[in-house]
Amino acid sequence: MAKKQHVIVVGGGLAGLSATMKLAEAGVHVYLISMVPVKRSHSVCAQGGINSVNDLTRQEGDSEWLHLDDSVYGGDFLQHQPLVKEMCDWGPRIVNLLDRLGVPFNRTPEGLLDQRRFGGTLFKRTAFAGATTGQQLIYALDEQVRRWEADGLVEKFEYWEFLGPILDGNGHCRGAVVQDMFAMTIRSLAADAVVLATGGCGLIYGRSTMSMICTGGAAGRAFKAGVNYANGEFIQVHPTAIPGTDKLRLMSESARGEGGRVWVPRKPQDPRDPLSIPAAERYYFLEERYPKYGNLVPRDIATREIFDVCVTQGLSVEAGQMCVYLDVTELPPTVQKKLDGILEIYEKFRGVNPREVPMKIFPAVHYSMGGLWVDYERDDNTGGLVLGSPRNQQSNVPGIFVIGEADYQYHGANRLGANSLLSCIFAGLIVAPSIENWLKSQAKGSAADQPASLFDDAVMLHQQRMEQLIHNQGEENPYKLHQELGDWMTRCVTVVRNNKDLQACLDKIDEFADRYQNVSLSDKSHWTNQNLSFTRALEDMILLARVITKGALLRDECRGAHYKPAFEIPPTSADDPVKLREQAEKWCRAFKEQSDRWLKTTIAKHTPDVPEITYEDVDTSLIPPRPRTYGLKGAEIIEKTWKEMTKATPVRKPQAAAVSG
Amino acid sequence: MEEDPNGKHPMSATTHIHQTHTLSHEGNGRKISVKVLRQSDPRGGSHWETFEVPYEPGMNVTTVLQRIAANPTNAEHEHSTPVAYDSCCLEEVCGACTMVINGRVRQACSALVDSLLADSPEGIELRPMTKFKVVRDLFVDRSPMFAALKRIKAWVAVDGYHDIGPGPRISPREQDEAYPLSRCMTCGCCVEACPQFNDHSTFIGPAAISQAILFNAHPTARVERDDRLAVLTGVGGIVDCGNSQNCVKVCPKDIPLTTSIAKAGRDTTLYKIRQWFGR
Ligand SMILES: Cc1cc2nc3c(=O)[nH]c(=O)nc-3n(C[C@H](O)[C@H](O)[C@H](O)COP(=O)(O)OP(=O)(O)OC[C@H]3O[C@@H](n4cnc5c(N)ncnc54)[C@H](O)[C@@H]3O)c2cc1C
Ligand code: SF4
Ligand code: SF4
Ligand code: FES
To answer: Which CATH class is domain B30-140?
Structure first.
């Protein structure tokens, strides 16, 4: 390489940090940009753990193939399977690496890694570090990056905001425009690859379980610059969160795993002390409706039932605020002790001791499965990826790569618990060799050869935009506009969706976009102007809200987190075996039809007015799609019928794991 | 018995349209007085400004600051600006939102208004931490804390990131000791409370000392043990600690800082002895 080439990594969560350390190890010079010190990124919030096959589960018959199967079944088959296969193959290696980096994982008496079971699988695949796995993982990676920083290979720009990519005349990315969030100075950075690792977009929903930086601002800016956005409508809602005035804090699944029970008083808004309400007057609705799974039904079903009880049946515990009881008061102290980590969160933020008083919880927006579109290259021999291919994780804009929650891959229509930390680190590790090869191909006509005007013009544009926002005179308050957007999105585009509301929401978003033109900042200063940064992100939130809502409106089916009852295939009802078989066959035909039409990635492309939506086939070359029948009436007969109807379809056999990296 | 999520979903097309979490307006018009020590930039002087914020049940200090941002009119009915402050996770795990609340250093996101008012009904007072340069209002620059982590080599110097199997075996007891230290979120509470840490001293501070102890206990990270002890033995190291134990009292993560400091004292002594005899 003649000239020194640089890579910009935007975002220092688990994805951005793993990419940075891996690039630095290869000798690539990295500019690491983050709105907060990378150690404080949103990834610290993850509590539960990280999935991988391990020696213990292997002896129980587990394999990388089964991890792949759980992931694509859980995701309702909307993922490109080669990527998921490669990720699951890497799982054990990634956990080993984290172990070597000093993550204080919980241990067995023999000194090996302890594992717990998470939703959507039969195996104890989840490694964890106390109740703060995400924090512990990010610290280990942050430490490695600090080491490279001390060596001079990584230059950190903390408290700097990414404003947009810089594209040359051929549409190749040659750098980025960034802003110092203290001095508010805007500058350009030249680079031959920009990696976006900027996390999810929960703030579009007002309050969620996500952190304050999760606006989707960076993704919105990339989208505007031409990067496509895929599967936006798939937003995961977690069944149990603690309602709060500023944030909805997660109450982990483990509360139910250890025996916590969900209930509401049978009498609407019963004013009595919950503990004085006799058992007969309590409605343990999950246990009554799902005697087999009880309180441990999968996330999407628990979420819908809690919604149903509060909204349709009017049985919310409180009148002013939707919530149900999650009760651990009857658990023995030894079991309560196991839950200390999460019970403390409740106590700290509600000021009430959940060991003595039932917790009040309600579902909350939790994860964005959709995100910026990225490519991959499949290896036909292994069924996985061609490692080092510059196509891996590269978007449709040459030179822009996307990893972590910001990309759309790996989780399909619904994310499996504890798979996200894995996907973030995996994508970060594999993007590094892809970029190395990309840089080689860019040695001629690289960022360093571009005219200065390319960078100066980009900076000037963003400066003008900033001055325009600061001096805008209007009636609209950005914070209040954000709250309205959040309320609409939460009402129309979360748990239960229907086209009338989605259309109304889309119209409302148009109105928000118009009103945004009249926002006025209360802070007109040029020093640490947080008002400006937030208002700028609001524009991106409105942009992505439209993508999410339009995708949801067009997708007339139920898949994973996208639940539209009007398009649900009616379950079987007959008792007579012949009738039942007929119904099952009908069900399967309807399912097949639905799959043919909708087993597709939604792709949104930015245009000056409305996003243009097209669909792309999903690579299901490894595991043929099958109905996700968990809890469905007639599940057995439907599964049996489906197997018989699709018998002809050959199943690809897994091959040996791909090369290590 | 039926398990039938797909069969019975009586949610009609429109009834589910409800606010999932309504903004509570149950405060009965009650207002809380919030006094903020403001400073527009690092060079400027500071002044107090009071806001009257409508009370909401269950609110915390970050909510108070969000409400001020949405409506920055002060108690004198003058138009003001949103208060600048650092925040991210809102669940006391990232360490960003540390400030001095009613005289006590802590995180704004886990400071509940009800309990603050129970202790001091007259209102809430917010000040920036005093041991760091103020950027603006309640926002301070904690980069010296991150620089200290670099000095004490707070990392495990692995050979590389390729696949060479698992790390060293670690007993549950060792994990039990390491885990609490590893929860340090570089929030700065301990440093704020430490009488030895200030503008004029070079003291590295309790958080960094504790991190040095954490890494010195790790089987792989131990190779750089002497480098860490050299820093703790040098200027601004362990000798500067006056052992006042303020730090351990304010740590929101209950990190046994004074235990780490005592251990650092012993280890540096041994290190010095080794240096004398080694040369
Ligand atoms: C409460 C909670 C619990 C969870 N628990 C688990 C779990 O147990 N297991 C699991 O697998 N997953 C879990 N998840 C999901 C998982 O934590 C996230 O998906 C993951 O951490 C995302 O990491 P990331 O690297 O993509 O981005 P983040 O960690 O979100 O980081 C984003 C980065 O981008 C930067 N950034 C953003 N915008 C800009 C901009 N414009 N300019 C500059 N920088 C920018 C930020 O500063 C930050 O550094 C949980 C999520 C939540 C909310
Ligand atoms: S014990 Fe040492 S480090 Fe802790 S507050 Fe006192 S002087 Fe500071
Ligand atoms: S030791 Fe405790 S008080 Fe000090 S920075 Fe770490 S978490 Fe904060
Ligand atoms: S915002 Fe993270 S600790 Fe308060």
So the answer is: alpha beta
| HSE, side-chain direction, 13 A CA sphere, residue A394 | 24
Mean pLDDT, residues A195-216: 97
**In the annotation, is A299 catalytic?**
yes
Residue-wise pLDDT tens digits, A498-551:
999 999 999 999 999 999 999 999 999 999 999 999 999 999 999 999 999 999
Instruction: pLDDT band for B27, please (50, 70, 90 cuts).
Output: low
Q: What percent of chain A has pLDDT over 70?
A: 97
CA A469 – CA B200 distance, rounded (Å): 41
CB atoms A247 and B161 under 8 Å: no
Residue A134 to residue A422: CA distance in whole angstroms: 11
**Number of the ligand closest to the Cα of B197:** 2
Instruction: Measure in Å the smallest separation between the Cα of A172 and chain B Cα atoms.
Output: 30
Q: Cα(A562)–Cα(A598) distance, rounded to whole angstroms?
A: 12
The domain ranges of chain B are 30-140, 143-276
Domains and their CATH numbers in chain A: 6-238+367-454 (3.50.50.60), 239-363 (3.90.700.10)
Q: What percent of chain A has pLDDT over 90?
A: 83
Indicate the burial class of A65 (C-beta count within 10 angstroms; 0-12, 13-18, 19 or more): middle
Instruction: Give residue A164's pLDDT.
Output: 98
- Ligand nearest to the Cα of B108, by number: 4
What distances in angstroms separate CA B97 from CA A212, B84, B247, one per listed residue? 12, 11, 18
Fold (topology level) of B143-276: Fumarate Reductase Iron-sulfur Protein; Chain B, domain 2 (1.10.1060)
The pLDDT assigned to B138 comes to 98
**Ligand 2 close to Cβ of residue B201 (< 6 A):** no
Query: What is the average pLDDT score of chain B?
Result: 90
Residues 6+ apart with CB under 8 A from A383: A81, A82, A85, A621, A622, A652, A654, A655
Q: Helix, strand, or coil here: B242?
A: coil
Question: Å from A449 to nearest chain B CA?
Answer: 33
Render pLDDT for B148-206 as a digit per residue (tens, 0 to 9). Answer: 999 999 999 999 999 999 999 999 999 999 999 999 999 999 999 999 998 788 999 99
pLDDT tens digits, residue range A370-388? 999 999 999 999 999 999 9
Q: What mean pLDDT value characterizes chain A? A: 93
* pLDDT of B15 over the 50 cut: no
Shortest CA distance to A518 belongs to which of A538, A543, A492?
A538
Could you give the CA distance from residue B44 to residue B278 in angstroms, rounded to a whole number? 53
Contact B82 A530 (CB under 8 A): yes
Nearest residue, CB atoms, A112 vs list B40, B41, B169:
B169
CA angle A121, A393, A549 (to 5 degrees): 70
B242 lines ligand 2 (CB under 6 A): yes
Measured in degrees and rounded to the nearest 5, phi and psi for residue B183 equal -85, 0
Tokens of residue B212, six digits? 């040095």
Contact A211, A219 (CB under 8 A): no
* Higher pLDDT, residue A490 or A258: A490
Paired strand residues for A81: none
Round to whole Å and give the CA distance between A550 and A303.
Answer: 23
How distant, in Å, are the alpha carbons of A68, A260, A414, A536, B90 from that of A40? 31, 31, 26, 22, 11
With an 8 Å Cβ cutoff, are A102 and B167 in contact?
A: yes
Taking CA–CA distances from A346, the nearest residue in chain B reads B91
Element (H, E) at A539: helix A530-554
What's the pLDDT at A320? 81
Query: What residues of chain A lie within 8 A of the CB of B66, using their CB?
Result: 246, 479
Say yes or no to pLDDT of A442 above 90: no
